């Protein structure tokens, strides 16, 4: 049986992880989860944010499914999410955004994928105060040719493999001439190798407006770390919210699958969380593991429920609990 590391995470993490493991078990998925905890709870118990055994498990299994982890704002804590992406060089953060049946939104045909650079940009954590009074601070944004090249290449390869003829590169090179300029130049260079694919260059602020006005126009979006983070939540909002948006962090030989949303402390422990974002993430993980049959079986059950629109969680206007929706999916498998 294929082993996968499961990190339940903080906040709603344990509830939505249980939903996924219950559904996998009911569907007879040939995956055995090795549970490893990390985050706030582990820190409070052991003084360690990430236990050594978690690294060992990921390095052995090569594939992990991860719930959200709370990152307290303030000194002393670096995000575990950012840390894991960096440690395993998981440079592609891939976030598919698709209109779903039965979910009421302003748009009908959104089908795009965001490729977010995941290891550099403004997320390298190099920040400091510039004076003793701590009234002035700076953060460093690092863009490298290598880092830009591999994420942009991944986006073009995805477009090619899926017969898509446009890649949209999002930047702010008009202001950040050197850093964003390097990213943009790398994109122009790579584009030369893909004659069948049009490259569209859009400045980040305009992109936000375009995505709200005409999201159906986009297929593949590739951008730097911070812009990609922000656009992912924006795009999740276009198709029904964070409760539906899956994601994956992919490197050369390790992949960590996680939804776009965070630990949702406002609804944690209340049996209210929508497990579908993590479930769609798990379905993408099954496809990555070439378990296509089980992936499709679970996906079909979910789509059937969404179409009917009777059993939905509160974020989608319904009144079902996490457990009730999970049971309904199992019934429909
Ligand atoms: P969030 O994504 O946790 O929540 C934003 C809003 O969306 C909240 O109102 C929440 O209730 C709702 N929401 C999110 N997921 C939902 C779901 N599955 N079902 C129903 N409603 C859902 O973002 P927030 O509040 O900014 O961050 C909370 C914590 O999560 C922070 O500590 C942050 O650092 C962390 N975080 C962790 C991430 C990760 O582990 N990859 C990603 C984003 C944030
Ligand atoms: Mg985010």
UniProtKB/TrEMBL annotation:
Task: Give the Enzyme Commission number.
Answer: 1.1.1.41
One BP annotation, GO: isocitrate metabolic process
What GO terms are given for molecular function? isocitrate dehydrogenase (NAD+) activity; magnesium ion binding; NAD binding
SMART domains registered for this protein in UniProt: Iso_dh
Q: Which UniProt keywords apply?
A: Oxidoreductase
Residue ranges of every copy of the Isopropylmalate dehydrogenase-like domain listed in the record: 3-329
As given in the record, the signal peptide range reads none
Which family does the entry's similarity section mention? Belongs to the isocitrate and isopropylmalate dehydrogenases family.
- What name does this protein carry? Isocitrate dehydrogenase (NAD(+))
Tell me the lineage of the source organism. Bacteria, Fusobacteriati, Fusobacteriota, Fusobacteriia, Fusobacteriales
């Amino acid at each position: 049986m294929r082993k996968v590391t499961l990190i339940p995470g903080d906040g709603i993490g344990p509830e939505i992880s249980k939903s996924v493991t219950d559904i996998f078990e009911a569907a007879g998925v040939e995956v055995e989860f090795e549970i490893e905890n990390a985050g706030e709870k582990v820190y409070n118990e052991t003084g360690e944010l990430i236990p050594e055994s978690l690294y060992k498990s990921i390095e052995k299994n090569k594939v992990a499914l991860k719930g959200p982890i709370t990152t307290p704002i303030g000194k002393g804590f670096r995000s575990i999410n950012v840390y894991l992406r960096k440690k395993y060089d998981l440079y592609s953060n891939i976030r598919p955004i698709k209109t779903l049946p039965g979910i009421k939104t302003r748009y009908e045909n959104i089908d795009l994928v965001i490729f977010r650079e995941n290891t550099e940009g403004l997320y390298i954590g190099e920040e400091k105060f510039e004076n003793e009074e701590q009234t002035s601070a700076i953060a460093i944004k690092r863009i490298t040719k290598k880092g830009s090249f591999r994420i942009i290449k991944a986006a073009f390869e995805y477009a090619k493999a899926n017969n898509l003829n446009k890649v949209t590169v999002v930047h702010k090179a008009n202001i950040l001439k050197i850093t964003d300029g390097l990213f943009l130049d790398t994109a122009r260079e790579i584009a030369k190798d893909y004659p069948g694919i049009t490259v569209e260059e859009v400045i980040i602020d305009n992109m936000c407006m375009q995505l709200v006005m005409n999201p159906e126009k986009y297929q593949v979006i590739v951008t730097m770390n911070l812009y990609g983070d922000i656009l992912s939540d924006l795009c999740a909002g276009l198709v029904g919210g964070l409760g539906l948006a899956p994601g994956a962090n992919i490197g050369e030989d390790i992949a960590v699958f996680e939804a776009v949303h965070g630990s949702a402390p406002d609804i944690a422990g209340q049996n209210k969380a929508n497990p579908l974002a993590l479930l769609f993430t798990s379905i993408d993980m099954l496809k990555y593991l070439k378990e296509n049959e089980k992936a499709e079986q679970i996906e079909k059950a979910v789509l059937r429920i969404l179409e009917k629109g009777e059993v939905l969680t509160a974020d989608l206007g319904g009144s079902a609990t996490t457990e009730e929706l999970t049971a309904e999916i199992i019934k429909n498998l």
